[in-house]
Amino acid sequence: MIKVAIVGGTGYTGVELLRLLAGHPQVEITAITSRSLAGTAVADLFPSLRGHSELVFSVPDVDTLAGADLVFFATPHGVAQAQVPELVQRGVRVIDLSADFRIKDIPTWERWYGQPHVAPALAAEAVYGLPEVHREQIASAQLVACPGCYPTAIQLGWIPLLESAAIEPSSLIANAASGASGAGRQGKTELLFAENSDNFRAYAASGHRHLPEIEQGLRNVQPEGSDPARLTFVPHLLPMVRGIHATLYARLKPGQTLESAQALFAQRYRDEPFVDVMPVESHPQTRSVRGTNMCRISLHQPQGGDTLVVLSVIDNLAKGASAQALQNMNIMFGWKETLGLESPALLP
Ligand SMILES: NC(=O)C1=CN([C@@H]2O[C@H](COP(=O)(O)OP(=O)(O)OC[C@H]3O[C@@H](n4cnc5c(N)ncnc54)[C@H](OP(=O)(O)O)[C@@H]3O)[C@@H](O)[C@H]2O)C=CC1
Ligand SMILES: CC(=O)N[C@@H](CCC(=O)OP(=O)(O)O)C(=O)O
Fold first, then answer.
1. pTM score of the predicted model
2. What's the number of domains the chain is made of?
């Protein structure tokens, strides 16, 4: 058993962590923080956790957090980088769900996030928590930076092709749509039922902060000497709660076919418990991954042309955040990677 603390327990990724950890046999949650609801019982705020949690929210306090073996940060950007250095110094392991430690190039982080980075040395040390690429480094990491939700769906959809140089790396286009829980639990006008339901729209089409994270991850898997992966990324907001559907377009290199691409995916993800390569020309649905750590992928070659379309779906709060954080925890502590993550999606 390890002791775990969560900073940011009243948000959507925080409560998803609580839901998943309630079914994990190796974890005892010793602290969960909220500045605004300190003193409130977790089960009063989230009745879904009645009978599963006796915890009460407390204000973040470094001495309390340092009593845990592992601390999850489920907080907005900028929070973890201010608090993690002391915890790391005191020997605590940390999984950060925010973007604070994902990007290695600090000027790039500062430009996209619009604030100075206060812990650049830790950003250099942090391991990017995409197990399908960094499993070995995650196992021994003290600080893991969990990938963003769009970056998870998009990277998993292109990694086999870029590793094998099977597509033109400068031809990449990603259209991805997310459920509204991706925007967190704070009140925002555009997330009101009357604004978001029965509606569909793109946002940040001229530049979203996940772009540099995705490009960094894709370039990292390319063979040395390749032209760097370049991406056009347009996110959309869907009138649903959970799920990301990414439609990825790339030009196949001469000699590559739908069948050769499918074989690359089948081989690359053969032993991955959380990537499901579906039969060619399938249409994965967000509903098939709801509440799970699964990424389902399928490939298409419309009209037999030279464009390969990859469809990739995840649950933004699960494989896109909290369940992937648990997968990382399982790897860090040497447990079976699927522990606490085995349940299939909720249907209908
Ligand atoms: N929603 C999603 O699908 C995904 C989110 N993420 C990332 O995960 C992180 C959390 O997201 P999400 O759960 O949606 O966010 P929410 O806005 O729903 O929740 C944020 C939480 O952080 C706490 N918090 C806010 N400011 C501070 C602070 N200065 N110090 C300590 N605690 C603070 C809040 O509680 P209180 O103010 O009471 O302290 C609240 O519990 C974000 O960085 C987000 O970008 C990553 C992938 C997917
Ligand atoms: C629908 C929606 O608003 N989604 C969020 C992405 C949330 C997320 O995963 O991103 P970070 O962890 O990098 O913040 C957005 O586009 O800002």
1. 0.97
2. 2
* Ligand 1 atom at shortest distance from the alpha carbon of 183: 1
Residue 21 lies in a domain: yes
Segment 203-222, tens digit of pLDDT: 999 999 999 999 999 999 99
Would you give the end-to-end CA distance of the chain in angstroms? 35
Question: Domain range for residue 29?
Answer: 2-125
Could you tell me the two tokens for 81? Answer: 């980088």
Mutate to test the pocket of ligand 2, among 149, 191, 240 (most ligand atoms within 8 A of CB): 149
Judged by phi (left if over 0) then psi (alpha if -120 to 50, else beta), residue 225 lies in left
**Catalytic positions, written as ranges:** 149
Which of 7, 10, 13, 130 for a ligand 1 pocket mutation test, highest count of atoms within 8 Å of Cβ? Answer: 13
Rounded-to-integer distance, Cα 54 and Cα 50, Å: 8
Question: How far, in Å, is the centroid of ligand 1 from the Cα of 35?
Answer: 12
